[in-house]
């Protein structure tokens, strides 16, 4: 039976690179995004390139709990994934004391609450099966305070804390939990910035790190993986 991976927010950037990496190894793919056209294009490309895998692409806005619930239901109707990557996220710069009203709620709902509810949706099945690997795509913003981080940084610090708790809760059940704490990675959100592309990490490097962490023996787990640009944070 084929193994499967669910990557939330999988049509672009790091999520897309992770999907490509696991699809190339024969994993069935479950993913979601807000844009239907992007999902359709991703599904068609994957199915043309990897003819032996199944691809389920679901339109969902994970800042809305109702969409999270629907995503869980539609994926579980097919399978409980072997690997879960909580990747959905949004970044709006600003300072806590004066960022626009609503930034905090949007980023907490998108970056943290979605991961909380998606994880809860599959954890019991993973416990019963006694296997699974959950990855949280955090950020170095969840390790180091910096100006203009605002609610984004708050959400990523919270994500790291949640993932640490999950690690302790799930390790007796043979379920691995890993925080990926990535620095500036060149994705669409950085396009147009006045810096050379070479200054950024590649999304494929993050994907390779996730693949490597997944492939350790059952006796070992990568709890936290910090990946930064070679020349330091941006």
Q: Count up the domains.
A: 1
What's the number of helices?
6
CATH architecture: 3-Layer(aba) Sandwich
CATH top-level class: Alpha Beta
- For this structure, what is the CATH homologous superfamily? NAD(P)-binding Rossmann-like Domain
Low-confidence stretches: none
Give Rg in angstroms. 17 Å
Tags for this entry?
234 residues, alpha/beta, Rossmann fold, seven-stranded parallel sheet, 6 helices, globular, NAD(P)-bd_dom_sf, Sc_DH/Rdtase_CS
Précis, in short:
By secondary structure, this protein is an alpha/beta fold.
Provide a descriptive summary of the structure in words.
The termini are far apart. The chain has one domain: 3-Layer(aba) Sandwich (Rossmann fold). By secondary structure, it is an alpha/beta fold. The protein contains six helices and seven strands, in the order E-H-E-H-E-H-E-H-E-H-E-H-E. It is 41% helix and 15% strand.
Topology, element by element:
Elements (H helix, E strand, L loop, with lengths): L3 E5 L4 H11 L4 E6 L2 H14 L5 E5 L5 H12 L6 E4 L16 H27 L3 E5 L12 H21 L5 E7 L20 H12 L9 E4 L7
Parallel strand pairs: 1-2, 1-4, 2-3, 4-5, 5-6, 6-7
Helix pairs in contact: 1-6, 3-4, 4-5
């Amino acid at each position: 039976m084929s193994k499967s991976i669910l990557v939330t927010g999988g049509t672009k950037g790091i999520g897309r690179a992770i999907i490509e990496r696991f699809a190339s190894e024969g994993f069935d793919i479950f993913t979601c995004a807000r844009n239907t056209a992007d999902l359709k294009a991703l599904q068609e490309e994957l199915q043309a390139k990897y003819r032996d895998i199944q691809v389920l692409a679901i339109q969902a806005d994970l800042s809305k709990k109702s969409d999270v619930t629907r995503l869980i239901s539609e994926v579980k109707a097919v399978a409980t994934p072997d690997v879960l990557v909580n990747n959905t996220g949004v970044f709006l710069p600003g300072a806590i004391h004066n960022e626009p009203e609503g930034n905090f709620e949007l980023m907490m709902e998108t970056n943290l609450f979605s991961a909380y509810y998606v994880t809860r949706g599959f954890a019991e099945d993973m416990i019963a099966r006694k296997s699974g690997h959950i990855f949280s795509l955090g950020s170095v913003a969840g390790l180091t305070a910096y100006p203009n981080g605002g609610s984004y940084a708050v959400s990523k610090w919270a994500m790291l804390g949640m993932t640490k708790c999950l690690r302790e809760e799930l390790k007796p059940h043979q379920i691995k939990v890993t925080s990926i704490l990535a620095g500036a990675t060149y994705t669409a959100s950085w396009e147009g910035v006045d810096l050379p592309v070479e200054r950024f990490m590649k999304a494929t490097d993050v994907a390779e790190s996730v693949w490597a962490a997944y492939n350790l023996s059952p006796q070992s787990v990568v709890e936290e993986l910090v990946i930064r640009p070679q020349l330091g944070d941006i």
